[in-house]
Amino acid sequence: MTTIALKSLHYCWPGASTPILDIASFDLQSREKVMLRGPSGSGKSTLLSAIAGVIEVPQSSVHVAGTDIGGLSGRDRDRFRVDHLGLIFQVFNLLPWLSAVENVTLPCRFSARRRDKVGGDPTKAAERLLGELGLTDVNLLNGPASALSIGQQQRVAAARALIGSPEVVLADEPTSALDEEAKGAFVELLLKECNAASSSLLFVSHDRTLEKHFDRTVELNMLNGGTI
Ligand SMILES: Nc1ncnc2c1ncn2[C@@H]1O[C@H](COP(=O)(O)OP(=O)(O)OP(=O)(O)O)[C@@H](O)[C@H]1O
């Protein structure tokens, strides 16, 4: 089954003279784990924004988890995003005044679907996920997120993306702040948890050493119809 289906995807940032995205077609299958590579400025983050419905891409076809994103109002896109997508960014965007566990349960506060998929107490689910990702210290789990190291914040961001088993996890260079050993270990954990949640993963990275962990690698320059 296809989880992401893009057809004739074009996008030009306001004021730019050429489109940054010009993609004839791209599919991501259910449970597939794909690495997206491309030079800096080639449009990788822009592509994730189009898939997440953060930017509008008129006259393009973007289907995610069976829904035509372009057919949704802004409000429905926000609802769709929290119901069906897990997002991990380069900057982890944790709420510093909440604890690690409270950050992880946030999607369940905003999405009944994610809460139902947890099928029990979201706090317990958050603690389980954080434990799987190697965070078990109760003081860390219940203390403010502002007290966490970069590597710990990244695990919290991953658990927040995965809670309630979204169909798709989009990760934008989440390993860029980590050393070589920590990068590989984090990707392995992320893939294991995506498998457990039956989530597809589109993972942006420049790092060729991580390629071996994924089902396939897609070069944005090859997808993009000669815009670069
Ligand atoms: N909000 C925005 N407004 C206008 N132009 C933008 C905006 N965001 C990105 N761009 C432009 O779109 C192009 C692609 O940026 P994008 O961040 O998608 O690339 P990237 O491949 O993710 O880069 P990097 O690997 O450096 O993160 C760049 O030229 C950038 O300046």
Automatic annotation (TrEMBL):
GO CC annotations, alphabetized: plasma membrane
Keywords: ATP-binding, Nucleotide-binding, Transport
Stretches assigned to the ABC transporter domain: 4-228
SMART domains referenced in this protein's UniProt entry, alphabetically: AAA (SM00382)
Protein name: ATP-binding cassette domain-containing protein
One Pfam family named in its UniProt record: ABC_tran
GO molecular function: ATP binding; ATP hydrolysis activity; transmembrane transporter activity
